[in-house]
Amino acid sequence: MAAVCGLIIAVALCAGCTSTPSSPAGDDTSTGMKTITDGMGRTVSVPVSPERVVCSGPGCLRYLTYMQGEDSVVGVDDIEIKDNIFDARPYAIANPQFSSMPLIGEFRGNDDPEKIVLCNPQVIFKTQCTEASVADQLQQKTGIPVVALQYGNLNNERALMDQSLRLIGNVMGNGDRAEAVITYFDTLTTDLHERTAGVADKDRKTVFVGGIAHAGPHGFQSTQPNYPPFEFINARGLAEGPMTDHANIAKEKIISFDPEIIFVDLSTLQTTPSAIDELTDDPSYAAMTAVKAGKVYGVLPYNWYSANQGSVMADAYYIGTVLYPDEFSDVDPEKKADEIYSFLVGEPVFNQKDNLFSNQAFKRINLK
Fold this sequence. Notes:
- The chain is of the alpha/beta class.
- It has 2 domains: 2-172, Nitrogenase molybdenum iron protein domain (Rossmann fold); 184-356, 3-Layer(aba) Sandwich (Rossmann fold), CATH 3.40.50.1980.
- Helices cover 38% and strands 13% of the residues.
- The chain has a 4-stranded parallel β-sheet with strand order 11-9-13-14.
- The protein starts with a helix and ends in a 12-residue tail after the last helix.
- Residues 1-25 have low confidence and may be disordered.
């Protein structure tokens, strides 16, 4: 304990070496430091091409993995070391070494500064900073540069997502990779839109997605207005509304929607009754057109410690094959998913994810 305290005090005394400068100075080869502006508008002095980093908060380690920075990680938050039956995070499946790394604190950004210092990182990347002072306080407590990131998403906050990827690329000295990832997402979204833009309104089936995860598993009434996979393929989502991550739709409303096709987010398998149980056992749901026709399909969860962007795109391609078989006749959804995962996290992990969710992903669900 004395040694630990001494280390913390020593780092604190050196905090000035990594404190936020009053104005950007660019790269300084003489000191091995450079200045960047982070996602909260803070000016931060960071080492050039750091070799030891940690990631705090939802999705932070995912984006670092997209940027091929996983080998630089020296500590993780506790979600990475939990032994869960279900896990929908491709970056974690592709990097099992994360589960045996030193702890930096609890998940959702509840950091332990002392544990972070013991990992001896050169930079802390941090999401879920509600304000700049959160990052400032962590930097002051550890004496380590904190780069705040705003997570963003693939639709209405795409600019924030791209900014975060570029920030990580800048700090890690891997800016080319950031541009490659951004271009890859652009290519996928453009392809999805172009495949479906010419589909006549009369040929667009009405659809609903239930069982959407949001800070944990939920039943069938849990959905997402403006569900990104539906948006990317111009689907007729019946629960469309204000841009929000989550909504619980009244059972009577869903029945009145009477969708022609239903998709179920398989995160629901974590709860009882699951959305699949409800569709199987509830006579009111059984009367819906999609259920009677057996047109209920399983999709991969992507809301899992923030959005898994690769799974968003994989789901969009699969849903496209269901709704528009002619336009997606050249797509094998499982192979497309593995292409996406291989590019983003370095491994084709679809089968591993599917196995965790009872092998019901990208398949028609049998409602007994």
